[in-house]
Amino acid sequence: MAVHGGGSPGAKAGEVAGGAPERGDFGFAATVDSDTVDGPSAGMTGGGSTGRARLPPHLDSTSSQDSSVFEARSMPMNIGRHVLVRPLGMGGMGQVFEARAPDGTTVALKIIRGTSPERLYRFKREFRALSAVVHPNIVALYDLVHVDESGGPGLAFFTMELLRGAHFVAAVRDETADDAALDEAGLRRLQDGLVGLACGLSCVHRHGLVHRDIKPSNVMITATGRVVVLDLGLVRESRVASFDSLGENAPLLGTPLYMAPEQVIRSDDAGPPADWYAVGEVLWECLGGESRHAGRPLVEVFERKLMEPPEPPSRRRPGVPPHLDQLCVDLLAREPAARPSAGDVLVRLGRGDLVAIELTVQGLLGREHEARLLRDQLVQTGRTGAVFVSGPSGFGKTTLVEHVLDVVRREDSVVAFSGSCSERESIPFKALDSAIDALSLYLCNTDADATAISRPDDLAALARLFPILRTVPAIRAVDDARLDGLDPIEIRRRAADSLAEVLTRIAARRPVVLALDDLQWADLDSVLLLESVLLRKHPPPVTLLGSHREGTEATRAPLAHLWKSLEAAEHIGLRRVLVGPLSDEQSVALAARLLGGPVDDPVVTRIAREAGGSPFFIGELARHALAHGGLDDAGLSLDNLLRAHLQRLPLSAKRLVEVLAVAGGRLPRDLAVDIVAAAAGPVDRGTLARLRAEHLIRIADASQDDVLETYHDRVREAAAQEAAESHGSELAAIHRAIGEALLRTGSTDAATLAHHFRAAGDTERATQFTLAAALEAARALAFDQAAELFRAALSIGGIDAATATHTRAHLAAALANAGRLHAAARVYTDAAHADDTSASEAQRTEWLRLATAHFLSTGHHDEGRAVLEELLPRVGLSLPRGTASTIVALLGQRALLATRKLVLPPPGGPRLSELDAQRLDVCWTATRGLLYSDGISSALFHARHLRLALSSGDPLRAARAIGYEAYVRALMEGGAADAAATAIFDSLEASAEIQASPYVRGMLAQYRAGAHHMLCRFEPAMASYERGIAILREQCTGVMDEVAQMDAHRMMVLLYLGRIGELGDVAFRLLRECAERPNPYVEGFARGVLGNHVYLAQDQVDAAHEQLELYRRHAPKRFEAHFFNCASKQTELLRYRGEAEAAWQQNQADSAIVEKFPFFRVPFVKAEFYRSRAANALALAARSRDPAPLLKIARAAAKQCFRVPLPMSDAYGRLTLASAAALEGVQDVAVSELRRAVAIFERLAMGSDLAASRRRLAALLGGDEGRGQQQQADAWFAAQDILRPDRFTDMIAPGFDRQT
Predict the structure, then answer these.
(1) How far apart are CA 1023 and CA 1044, in angstroms?
(2) What is the predicted pLDDT for the residue at 120?
(3) CB 617 within 8 A of CB 611
(4) Comparing C-alpha atoms, which of 639, 115, 196 is closest to residue 394?
């Protein structure tokens, strides 16, 4: 990857054209990434004068037959802003040229060959991994550039320093003949060269990297004696499970002559010891004059490496110094653990003084316990987990996490998708964005996990949130247009489902970790998406690894939300790893190692004392002491130290760090340099190298350009403070310069531009870009970010009244999509009340209607009713005062409807006016919104809506009204309305106009399902609910409340059908969705189900009790249905626990309230009410010494059940009479009534009631018939995983047996 030379005016004496130079010719412009410098006789199966082997092209990492290679005759030419001068060579990944950079300097420029995702990934990884490695014995990297090409994927390249020299063996042996031993001068060159090579490799390894291709041509010695490690094209991050080696047919990466045994077997297993093995091969070649494998077939070479101990070079070349002879043998040990380390090599070369400098630890000293805890959590498979690493800034959280991820990737085959958050970053879903980048790279290589997903269209939804996924072929092939017309909330739901399934598929083969750093800067959209993935009934078996600053889990709202949600999730094992200060002993040891001195050195002791256990602070103090010969007496706080460090820098260097800090920590390199140059003078490469070497800046991961960032958050904070205090009035100018520069790039997100222009005092442009960012976030479905940005735009104050009004409307829509419906309602109200003339009356009416809907749907009845009263006069309506007036008005409306036929208006009628359409929609909003809190008013508005719709000429609104009327009749009249309701539904659905409207079809499916439900036809109800949900979700927008309501009713049907397993899945999902988008109506039913059948099936009584307490505490007080449902479920729980007395007392207290509800007129409600009264009376009668009064109450309740025109109610009455008869010892009556109840429950498919009744019947019958009934009951209990059938039966069918 790097260049051995360049800029030569021509061939020199002794140079063979197209071949290699004579040894000692340091002026030769050597080729790159190839073995051609090894001489023309490098044959693999034959021998030349040098005895060095040539590899067949398919095994040579440097060979290429790629047609994209640039031809020398086309020079010079431009590539981006660089001018190519001449080709220098070809490497395993791309071609290398001598080039002139835009600033006129001569550089080496390397272009990637091919544009496959894997090649691009490896190319970017190469630069990303090495950009942080700054060392005199490693080639210096400069710029990473991506040049767009019209109609193509573009061209990526990077630049590096251009060197002159010879490869390692040629430089060491110089004029020494191949068959001669090294003389004294040669041994000195070898000794010095090995020291430089060891220092360079130790730096590579210290940064968590492995070279994987050390060989003579990849280590240069310049004319000045500088040793430089080159060709890092096969470098891999040792913590990454390499995508290069996925599959059995993975390529062999490296050069076989120098490969370690473990690298021969599997390239991905090559760690730092593999590089030291290669050094051993190079050392052998220097000492022996030729490769120890010269003239041998490849298979034999590999066999010798794997099976035979190495031969000492002294056997071939007597006179080899013993210490080098033994070092060579030890480096070539077959077992990696037996090879010397960097420290060992330096000591054995007599340079132990360099060990402390070259082997600086990366803050892991003393973290063995935390690392072990973390690793144990990450390697667990088959379950969903979460572990958070927290601690103060500078205490090594990130270092610990990266170290453990290194280990588990390498040793435990963990797949980890890593990302981090930035404080100033404003992209949608920023906490997940970079982790999804990593996922996309993984899928590019193993896209079977994407192609096998059960709903491929959902991948398009995930790609809508994260466009980078469109680089995955399987996802790129999915048509994004399939999402058109879907509700934004539905698209986000599908995206979460898709992400969960993809992660599940990956985790089926290997442990998966989702590692997110700096979660204190997380955004709420990312948190909610994460929760949607992890907090489902069957989540992907992955581990969330998050790290954040100590205490921010309480002070940063998104992180606090995530913490609270994960803590409450029973299926997630949440763990916390605290990274505290190092102990005094550990601090002293780290300081001593960094300084290279003894532990009792006074400077070491003082550093350990001053640093307070912070590894980062210890490192900065040690750096300060090494630079200044000790520590002065000035204040040594970390901030003061960093600021003093900054103040000692040259002006341009200091300003560069400050500009990065003011920019939020990162900027494109060219942009940052240009900003600084305009104010403080030019920034040359030496300045950049110094700042990187002094750990003030580093090169960030960037897909398209070279990006600089501050080395650590503490550096950013100190530099930002220094800039604020040093430049004061200039700070606004710095922000303006950054904003202007970013604007010129044309690719910066609008939110970042808005921040800088606002800080610069440019209100107009700050507002402009804030609004643009808000709209962009809304399009990306980042609803919370959009709301935050719309609110920010309003707060800046740079917009006129008209724009402010419409911005409020946008804000309200974003809040509603984000699930903050109550807040949305208030903002819609504010927009409607705004004092400007830009909004039409129709717009204001619509905003008030939406405010009413959101207030009422979230249980804020009083606020909703107040807005409704303001809204109604705008459409020519009013709300009667008092219940009596409402009933009179209702009767009047019903009288007007008595003679109207429920038929659709003929097609082709006059178009509905805007006011009439709004009047109808306001009536509909009131009908639905008041249904559960004021049933009489809801009925009045329904009657108005129906009458207006029938006269409107609008077939779609008329169909909505007529279908709802059919449902209401079934609801209020029971079986008596069955035939008429069914006829209405059939007639409506036969209309061609209705079939053309997905919205109306979906709503009619809901009403038909509701009618089936209320008439106890549970299986048809289930099918209709599912059809309605599918239509509205997949084809409509703005209907998520309707979908949620249908989902809740579908869940209740599952309850009646006794499908307990499915019931739990749906209830957990609905609770999760309600956490994102509050819906107290839906949440109440979900908690009622969990607090009853779901948790009690597993005998989790305390969990059930907790859910019901939350239900009673949080359900809106005016929701009549929830008061009754919660009361009924609580008495059922008490019966399950055997607390019959408490159940009866609660039933008595609640019944007095329920009987006064208008809701009580509904036949279905009456059936459940009298069933509950009877069940509680029977449960207590079974324990009472005088059961007669309670049995009388139970029989009276049964009598009421028989009056309700529903088959379910009849079965409840039969079951009640059977229990009363059994308690009185009248077995034949009990058996007779039970048989009739069983027959009805079986016909209605009411699984739990049927199983409990059969169990009771079995006990009464005995014999074969009894055993048959018992077996059927037991089969149901077993299929539904009911742990305590006896208690379940006591809850559903109480009584029967006296228990006094």
Answers:
(1) 16
(2) 57
(3) yes
(4) 639
CA 946, distance to chain mean position in Å, is: 47
In the sheet that holds 219-222, the strands lie side by side as 165-167, 219-222, 227-229
Distance (Å, rounded) from C-alpha 1112 to C-alpha 1149? 15
Rounded-to-5 percentages of helix, strand, coil across the chain = 60, 10, 30
Would you state the pLDDT for residue 37?
Answer: 28
Indicate the SS3 state at residue 293.
coil
Residue 61: what pLDDT?
Answer: 35
**Residues 688, 697 contacting (CB under 8 angstroms):** yes
Tokens of residue 906, six digits = 């003929």
The one-character DSSP state at 706 is -
Residue ranges of the annotated binding site for ATP are: 110
**Residue 1117, Cβ density class (10 Å: 0-12 exposed, 13-18 middle, ≥19 buried):** exposed
Residue spans of beta strands (DSSP E) within 135-277: 141-147, 155-160, 165-167, 209-210, 219-222, 227-229, 236-237
Q: What is the DSSP letter of 32?
A: B
What distance lies between CA 405 and its chain's CA centroid?
17
Homologous superfamily, domain 1120-1292: Tetratricopeptide repeat domain (1.25.40.10)
Q: Taking the CB of residue 1098, how many other CB atoms lie within 10 A of it? A: 15
Residue 138 DSSP code: B
Q: Which residues are annotated as a binding site?
A: 110
**What would be the CATH architecture of the domain defined by 174-207+239-358?**
Orthogonal Bundle (1.10)
Q: What is the mean pLDDT of each run of 10 residues along the chain (1300 residues)?
A: 30 29 31 29 28 34 40 64 85 77 81 59 59 76 68 69 89 85 91 92 81 89 88 49 37 74 75 93 93 87 89 91 95 93 88 60 63 86 88 83 84 87 78 89 72 73 88 82 81 90 90 92 90 87 91 87 86 86 83 76 84 82 76 69 86 90 85 88 80 78 63 86 80 89 85 88 91 89 90 87 92 90 94 89 95 91 94 93 90 90 81 90 93 88 93 90 93 90 93 90 95 95 94 84 91 94 88 82 90 92 92 82 90 94 94 86 93 96 94 96 95 96 94 96 96 96 94 95 94 90
Q: What is the pLDDT of residue 1214?
A: 96
Report the CATH fold assignment for 637-748. Arc Repressor Mutant, subunit A (1.10.10)
Cβ neighbours of 856 (radius 10 Å): 29
Q: How would you label 396-417 residue by residue, b for 16+ Cβ within 10 Å and e otherwise?
A: bbbbbbbbbbbbbbbeeebbbb
Please calculate the CA angle 1262-1266-1272 and round it to the nearest 5 degrees: 155
Torsion of CA 30, 32, 33, 34, to 10 degrees: -40
Counts for the chain of helices (H) and strands (E), in that order:
57, 19
CB atoms within 10 A of CB 743: 16
Query: What residue segments make up the domains of the chain, in order of their start?
Result: 174-207+239-358, 368-578, 584-635, 637-748, 1047-1116, 1120-1292
3-state secondary structure of 1145: helix
The answer to whether 1114 and 1102 are in contact (CB under 8 A) is no
CA distance 1120 to 1159: 7
pLDDT of 1010: 94
Looking at residue 516, its pLDDT comes to 93
- The secondary element (H helix, E strand) that includes residue 587 is helix 584-595
Domain 368-578 has CATH 3.40.50.300: yes
**What is the spatial distance between Cα 1144 and Cα 1178, in angstroms, rounded to a whole number?**
9
Of the candidates 5, 12, 33, which has an alpha carbon nearest to the alpha carbon of residue 171?
5
Q: How far from the centroid of its chain's Cα atoms is residue 1238's Cα? A: 50
